[in-house]
Amino acid sequence: MTIRRARWAVGLISGTSMDGIDAALVQIEGPGDRPKVRLHAFQTFPYPPAIRNQLLRVASGSATSAREISTLNFTLGQLFADATLAVCHQGRVAPRKLTVIGSHGQTVFHQGPSTRSGSKHPGRTSQSSTLQLGEAAVIAERAGAPVVADFRAADMAAGGQGAPLVPLVDYLLLRHNKLGSVALNIGGIANVTVIPAGAGLQEIFGFDTGPGNMLIDGLVRHFTQARRIYDEGGKWAAKGKLLKPVLNRILRLPFFHHPPPKSAGREQFGDKFLTHYFLSQRKAEPADLIRTATEFSVRSIADALRRFVFPRAEIHRLIVSGGGAHNEFLVDRIRDLLPELDLYRSDKYGLPADAKEAIAFALLADRTLQGLPGNLPAVTGARRGVILGKISRP
Fold first, then answer.
1. Fold type of domain 168-340
2. pLDDT of residue 84
3. Domain coordinates of the chain in residue numbers?
4. What's the rounded mean pLDDT across residues 81-97?
5. pLDDT above 70 as % of the chain
6. Alpha carbon distances (Å) from 246 to 212, 250, 322, 356
7. For the whole prediction, is pTM greater than 0.70?
8. Which terminus of the chain is more solvent-facing, meaning fewer CB atoms within 10 Å of its CB: N or C?
């Protein structure tokens, strides 16, 4: 089914930092292979502190019960519904006019497949699973519109990592006939989409490079007792000194040398990682640790491009989005390490840096309603392209 008429959609996502819900109201026109997307309204809705603390506890595996997770799933459904109604009000569009709502939900666990070394069954992968909270039926009932949710599961069922899923949207909205591009999203985790000049879908690839803002934000929260939640503009990092032994140690970890497809999350780079590699440095100054965490993100991004991207594609421009796009120190360090690339924020291409991922899930939900695949097997490692998500109707 191909839909060409204009339709309204809302995209909802909360990332690995678990700060709150991003909601984007967009209008989509055109066929699935050449959509035109216009952002009409965008808001971020911070989680109440008690909800965020509960999410962090669930994600860390601390004493939780099935009852707590079930209750939290429905509570988040209400919060995601509130975000939908609020962004529609901001954009002056009645929720009943929405064709679809795409809700990524809140990831509390994600483990992609990894091949077992020494297995008696070569090629067999370890058990993978994923869990996003934010009950879609609640959102659909409150908003009165169909909701597509649980996007990652179908890709994982087909043998994929379940992430990243935004690369298909990057291809649809950022491809160029003459310029090779890398779309870099710096959220809690950083990921790249590689779009060679004039590329077809089969030539696109992408992967998670490692931590984006996650460790930086975690250190800022720790040292300010949560009075601040991020390093504004990278000003704190700019005052610090680089702890080279710490940086060199973590850059030797296997994840950074493993070729794509690969995905990452709080399971690899969450609180346990932060404590083991950073907070264990008892005599280090806070600014030095934040500087080192920032450099870790920068180096892992630059190294990933040099190791896995540049040998495969000629790249001319780097298009940056996500919360990290506002960290001027971080972005300047990326420029320093990749001087051969022109660096732009995604805003230049009609995709505001903070809203891009929410916009992406509105567009992915639209594809689901059209019966179109939403994953890229070359990115996730899935055996085939699959239609993503499950549909809840009011």
1. Nucleotidyltransferase; domain 5 (3.30.420)
2. 98
3. 7-165+354-392, 168-340
4. 98
5. 95
6. 17, 6, 26, 33
7. yes
8. N
